[in-house]
């Protein structure tokens, strides 16, 4: 097969592992810088060009699209879909998961466990918003934030009001969520491939840090998850429409709650913590499922 990997940096661990796993199985692999692609949007014959070359003959494409380039990255992926190239994750599913508010609303509609979450536009509504999520301490999140950036723990009602009003004053969209104290600064990353949890790790924030992101100095260890946690992760992935994703859960007093569904999860932490060949499992999934034109959206929506 001829496989394209949309990635801005071929030296990243996740990208290089996918290349290694695909080439080990005899596939031809091309790493394509998403932001260097440009498109001919024409009737009946859509094209993607890259450094002066028309990209043709691809059987599948693996999107590794960073959050900061979601808009352009999904436009490039959508163009490949319109060329009938099989996408590991579809453009619509990636856009859905990247919009934190939309993702939470979709998960909520499916009855999947979530932290109590509030969203408002006007500072006048802050007092009721804080009450709605159970009062302080609470977590305030920028909708556009990633890797723990733009996430604040407000210990008191006064601190929460100040932070919320400051963000609103900057015209920033924010979510306000209950603080799951019993999680103890730890979360669970479930790695889903093709509707199955193939690996799971517990990420623990460093001392004094409530965010468990590995980028922020957290540690990762192998963990055995419960059937309920496994089911929650699979349902969350299905709700987003993602074939491959990382589902981040917290263990709360009322069962597992989903914090985020990541459409481009890193492979480094999960492979190191579990010792599993996750990149190989992803390529196996592509081998079994990649067929020309096998995309639900084909550029719709």
UniProtKB/TrEMBL annotation:
Molecular function GO terms recorded: ATP binding; metal ion binding; ribosomal S6-glutamic acid ligase activity
InterPro entries named among the record's database cross-references: ATP-grasp, ATP-grasp_RimK-type, ATP_grasp_subdomain_1, RimK, Rimk_N, Rp_bS6_RimK/Lys_biosynth_LsyX
Alphabetized Gene3D superfamilies for the sequence: 3.40.50.20, ATP-grasp fold, A domain, ATP-grasp fold, B domain
GO cellular component: cytoplasm
Needed cofactors: Mg(2+); Mn(2+)
Transmembrane segment boundaries: none
GO BP annotations listed: SOS response; translation
Domain ATP-grasp: from-to ranges: 104-287
Keywords recorded for this protein, A-Z: ATP-binding, Ligase, Magnesium, Manganese, Metal-binding, Nucleotide-binding, Protein biosynthesis
A Pfam match: RimK
PANTHER family per record: RIBOSOMAL PROTEIN BS6--L-GLUTAMATE LIGASE (PTHR21621:SF7), RIBOSOMAL PROTEIN S6 MODIFICATION PROTEIN (PTHR21621)
Protein name: ATP-grasp domain-containing protein
């Amino acid at each position: 097969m001829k496989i394209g990997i949309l990635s801005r940096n071929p030296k990243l661990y996740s990208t290089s592992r996918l290349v290694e796993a695909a080439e080990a199985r005899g596939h031809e692999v091309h790493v394509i810088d998403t932001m260097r692609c440009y498109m001919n949007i024409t009737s009946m014959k859509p094209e993607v060009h890259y450094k002066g070359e028309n990209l043709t003959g691809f059987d599948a494409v693996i999107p590794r699209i960073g959050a900061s380039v979601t808009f352009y990255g999904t436009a490039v992926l959508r163009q490949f879909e319109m060329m009938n190239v099989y996408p590991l994750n579809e453009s619509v599913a990636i856009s859905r998961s990247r919009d934190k508010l939309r993702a939470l609303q979709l998960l909520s509609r499916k009855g999947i466990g979530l932290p109590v979450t509030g969203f408002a536009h006007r500072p006048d509504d802050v007092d009721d918003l804080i009450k709605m999520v159970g009062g302080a301490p609470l977590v305030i999140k920028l909708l556009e934030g990633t890797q723990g950036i733009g996430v604040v723990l407000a210990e008191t009602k006064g601190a929460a009001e100040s932070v919320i009003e400051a963000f609103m004053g900057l015209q920033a969209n924010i979510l306000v969520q209950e603080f799951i104290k019993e999680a103890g600064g730890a979360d669970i990353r479930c790695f889903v491939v093709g509707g199955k949890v193939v690996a799971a790790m517990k990420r623990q924030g460093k001392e004094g840090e409530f965010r468990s992101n590995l980028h922020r100095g957290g540690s990762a260890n192998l963990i055995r998850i419960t059937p309920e946690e496994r089911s929650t992760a699979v349902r969350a992935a299905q709700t987003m429409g993602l074939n491959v994703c990382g589902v981040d859960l917290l263990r709360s007093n009322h069962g597992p709650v989903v914090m985020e569904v990541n459409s481009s999860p890193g492979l480094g932490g999960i492979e190191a913590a579990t010792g599993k060949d996750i990149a190989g499992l992803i390529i196996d999934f592509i081998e079994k499922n990649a067929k020309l034109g096998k995309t639900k959206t084909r550029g719709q929506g």
